Structures are given as structure tokens and as C-alpha cells.
Fold these 2 entries.
Entry 1:
Amino acid sequence: TVAIDGYSSSGKSTMARRLAGATGYRYIDSGAMYRAVTLYALDHGMISATGEVDAEALAAALPSIRIDFAPATEAGGQQHTLLNGTDVETEIRRLRVSNAVSPVAAIPAVRRALTEIQQAMGREGGIVMDGRDIGTTVFPHAELKIFVNASAETRARRRFKEMMETGAQVSYEDVLANVVRRDHIDETRAESPLRKADDALELDNSTMTLAEQDAWLMEQFEKRVQA
Ligand code: DC
């Protein structure tokens, strides 16, 4: 079991996806699950215009929210998140969802439900999961734990570039503000806050190339998982 945690847009998912591709492990993006629940809440009127979440209504609806992952259709491609059978991969990456997800992810009932599903997915091992609390809460006994970091500006630049490539109409300032706001909510929530597990390896990839990052990852994987 490999747990990769870190701040938003730190490159966790790229890292997790590439490691899974290189090792044949299954990749699970736990953030996509929080995003899918947020999309459900938005579409069912459970989030007010000011961003207030009706936590009780959402907790009651959890049993009727099913999240699955469809494998990528092309080699090395992105897997797709399904919400009650509908492909919502593009929709959950929009700023509408990014702006609403942190308060949803702070609701204890949501965290408990998603943690249970994630633990069930990892029961057999052979999994790389990325998120915020994978090394601390979901898989505290993972063989390899990595905590990824990069400055808020570096992360906002990456997210902005990604969003521009998908044709989104956003400003860099809005993206940076969203990154900073989410960091704060994720770090200060009462249940499973974003925190480096004591036994996680810390990686700041601000100035690393993808090739350097891949080499570092494989070295850690061979040392801790294959040894
Ligand atoms: O990694 P991401 O940006 O797609 O995550 C979306 C949100 O979900 C983020 O604000 C924090 C939350 N999250 C969480 O609380 N726990 C996880 N394991 C993964 C994501």
C-alpha cells in the first residue's frame, strides 16, 4: 500500500498515477471522491449561495451516493470518476466544485463514509492512493507514505495552467485565492486535518523535473515496498 498526501495541486495525483503505471498497482484519487460528493450536494440544493452546506441533509443522502472509477480508455490515460453511474470527471474539476469542496470534506459523516469505502478498496493491497489523510487515517500502516509539498504560488501556477488548457475562464488570482483558502480549511478542520504522518517521507517538488521525481519515487518504492 502506498499513501501519497499533500496540499492541493502539489502534483500528488501525477505522482500517484505514474507510480501506479510503473508498478501495475491500482491508482485511486480520493480527492475525486470528495469532489463527487460535493457535486451531488451542489446539484441537490444542499449548498447555499454563500457556501453553507446542509450537513444533515448530505449525511442523510450518503447511502444514495455511489462513486466508482472507470479505468482509463487509453494507456497512461486518466481514469474517470462516476457518480451514480454518470461520468463526472470533467465536472468535478471545475472551479464551482473546487470552491465548495473543502467545507464538504470537513463534515465528519462524509469523511467516515468515504474512509470506509477507501479502506475497502485497499484491503487487498497493490494500491496507490492520494489525498490528505491517507497516511494518517485511511492507511496508517501503508508501507510507503509520501507527503508532497510546494509553495502556494507554484501550485496555483500549475493549477491555472491546467485550467487554461481545458479552456476555463479563470484568473490566476482567483486560482491562488482558492488554493490558499483550501489549504487553510484542510489544515484546520477538526476531523483528519491535512498533516504529514510521522513516518511519511517529505518531498518538495517545486524545482524537480518529472524525470527526477519519477526516479526518486521508484527508489523509495524499491526500498520500502519491494524490499
Ligand atoms: O486533491 P483534490 O484537490 O482533488 O481534493 C479536493 C478536496 O478534497 C480538498 O479540498 C481536500 C479534500 N480531500 C480530503 O479532505 N481528504 C482526502 N483524502 C482527499 C481530498
Note: The longest helix spans residues 172-188.
Entry 2:
Amino acid sequence: MSELITSSAAQLAAKLAAREVTAVEVTQAHLDRINEVDGAINAFLHVNTDEALQVAADVDKARAAGEDLHELAGVPIAIKDLIVTKGQPTTAGSKMLEGWMSPYDATVISKIRAARMPMLGKTNLDEFAMGSSTEHSAYGPTHNPWDLDRIPGGSGGGSAAAVAAFEAPLALGTDTGGSIRQPAAVTGSVGVKPTYGGVSRYGAIAMASSLDQIGPVSRTVLDAALLQEVIGGHDPRDSTSLTDPVGSLADAARNGNVAGMRIGIVKELQGEGYEAGVQARFNESVEMLRDAGAEIVEVSCPNFKYALGAYYLIMPSEASSNLAKYDGVRYGMRELPAEPPLTIERVMSATRAAGFGDEVKRRIILGTYALSAGYYDAYYGSAQKVRTLIQRDFDAAFAQADVLISPTSPNTAFKLGEKLDDPLAMYLNDIATIPANMAGIPGISIPGGLSDGLPVGIQFLAPAREDIRLYRAGAALEGMLEQKWGGPLLASAPVLGGVK
Ligand code: GLN
């Protein structure tokens, strides 16, 4: 396999700066790879060939002219198809938006354009980011490069699979309850959910606005840091955007170190319900961190047992409101009722019945029920109180520890179809990732080894605005694990015949 597609983003950036390769060569190598393998993976819903090559050619020209370029200029990236892009379709994985073209760019896309990173295309996802397997996409599931019969996680399975299958060195995801971290975990890649407000949500199609966050997917901790530095920062177009800078993430990733760091094991995020192989890899990582000088403490977050229940009230409530705009009138799909009369209510109803899939309908029904006048206090109100209790649990935990550690997901990639008819089993995939969204704090998932030949993710969590700690701890663990494995985990993956 070409070194151009197995290199990390940081390595590509160095080769480009040294003029060992051109941006066109790098971009073409990834487009070739997509052509070669995406029939089997289905990570991409749209491939942006012409524009990507044009951006790359412009970068090469600018470099030849001696222009000052961003470090990642010419390094290609894939975009989750929940983020709007001018000039490329945006579907949100739904029939509702089939063929829809956004008239504007999301803020993160404007920043990627400003850095002159060629966009390879838009990646597959569960419809409107609802799911943990990418099987709820209206455009067919994405397959896990480690085993094509298995799920790549969700909702951002397309972005994670693209990165793990060497179709893209970098990708953007969105994480409302784990949709960046869980797909990263089950595909052996790195995924980061930044602090809420650290990256602008302007132009991310809203699922649950108080939980949603855009973040990086990559193969190394340093690459994720470099990408977060591109997309992060204050945006006046997002009223929840933070004004304070989060510091140099890439420096932290280049200087991974846990000596003297207090790392808290969350009692409630391990043990029962976690696969034996997942628990074993987790325990080994903890021991490695201890050997590297970290002080390991145990913390308890007793209210985490209510997190999943509260999430499945708050998230559907917000989603039911956010999805009300798909009415067959303003934009997107329009389905006319089979029989007259042609009233606006009947057009809305026919459109929403035909345009939304089962999981989206399930959540709209849940959300409108939880918000209805008679039940608001009992459901939505109680869930908001639980959210406060979870935040207090984190406050107490972070008084004892600088970062927390847990498995990212209780299980490795399951078989396609295995949990499709069992929504509750599907929801349990996010048991360890949801608390971070409820509290607005940042989290990272890094590869922690294999269980029965399938990747296991290790999650670090940090207090709000302390993303830098995730990169310092994540890079330290990554370095030790790679030393043990003799290289990155994905280098040993049986990705469609093997990366040797
Ligand atoms: N899997 C979770 C859900 O279905 C999380 C989704 C997400 O983070 N977008 O809600």
C-alpha cells in the first residue's frame, strides 16, 4: 500500500513542507484508495473529486510561489455528512435531504477551506446522527474495515471507517452521546469530543443542541490535536461558543506525559456489562500509566447509572424540536398525500412519514411525549435534574483526579444486524460516552489493543476547557502502547487484505 495513504496527517504535512510530495499526489492517492475499497466499506456518500484536486493543485502552486501556508495545507480530510458544505450535497443520512445542497458552509468548513485542506467528500452516518452502528443510514450501512460483517460504530461510522481504511488521514465527526468516540473505539482510530462550545456548531445539522459537538477523527493523537486547532475557537455565529482559547493542543500531543498526573478510574464505568477483553485491555492500560508515574485513584460517580435514561429524554426532546423544520414546505423532500384534500398538515404528514426512518420517528415520538404539557415535569424536568447531578459527580471526581479513564464502549464491533431490532441494546453502546455530553466536558478515545481480533477503545475525560490534558495523557498512553505493539495498531489491521 502506498506510503502516501498510510502516513499520518503530521507526516504528510512534513513531506509536503519538504516538497517530497505534492498535494495533488497526496490527494490523488486517497481518491484512488476510495475508488479501490469504498465499494466494500461504503464510508462515503459523496466523493468530491474535482474540487479536492483543484484545492490541492492551488496549494502546490502557492507553495511553489513561496506563499505562507497553513501546516495542514494540502492534507486531505473527509467530512461527516451532518455538516453543511457549499457545493457538495448534505444528506444527514436521511431521505429527507436527498440531493439537498446547502447554500452556505458550516464554520468548521470555512476554517478547513482557509487552511486549504482538500475535502475528499461526505461520510455516511446514522440518519440525523441517531444510532451506534451506521445501520440507520438511508443509504445503506458502512462496514468495519477490521471485519466487513461488522458495524463501524455510529453515528459517525463513515468518518471512522474512512480513516481506519486509509481512505482519509483525517475526518470530522459530531458527538452528541458518543458518535465520534464509539466509532473511533471500534475501528481502532482516535476520536475527540472537544469541550462543549470549543468548536462552533454553526452549520452542524442539529440533533440535540445542548449536547452536540463537532470534533476530529484521526489515526494518531497528534493528528487529532492539529485538526482541533484548525476547527476550534470562538465563533460569533454560535451563541454557545467559548471565547477563551484552549491552549496549544499539538504541543501537549507532542509532549505526552503522565508523570505525577492523577488519573481516576470511574468505578461505575467498568466491570459488569463490559466484555472481558475490553476490561482486560483497559486494566493493562491503567497499569502502564501507573508504571509511567501516574497516580491512579478510584472515583465514584453514583448518578451515572441514570445518565442513559436521562439522555434518552433530553436528546429526543431537543431532536423533536430541531426536526420540526422538515415539513415538506421549506426545503428538502416533499411528499404529497395520496388523496385530496391537499392541506398543509397532510403534506407535512405524508412527507415526514415517507422521509424519516424508524429510529428518527421513534425519537420524535419519545421527545414530543416527554415535552407534552402533562408529562413535562415528570420526564424532561426530572432528566434535567439528573443532568445537574451528573455534573456534580464530575466536579467531585475532578477534585480527586486530573483526568478520568474508562473503556470507551462496553463492547467491540458487533455483527451487522445483531442489534438492529433491539433499540435498548443499541443504546447501551454509549453508556460510557454519554456522561461527558451531559456535562459538556471533553473526551478522547484512543486504540487500546485488541479483543478477539477487534479494536478496544480507551477513553480519557477532562474538566471543561481542559482538552489539553486529554492530549497529554492520550499521547503518553499511545506512545507506550505503540512501543509494545511495535507500531500503530492500525498498521497490523487486516484492512482489506492487510497493511504491511
Ligand atoms: N448513539 C447515540 C445516539 O444514538 C449518540 C449519537 C450521537 O452522538 N450523535 O443517540
Note: The radius of gyration is 21 Å.
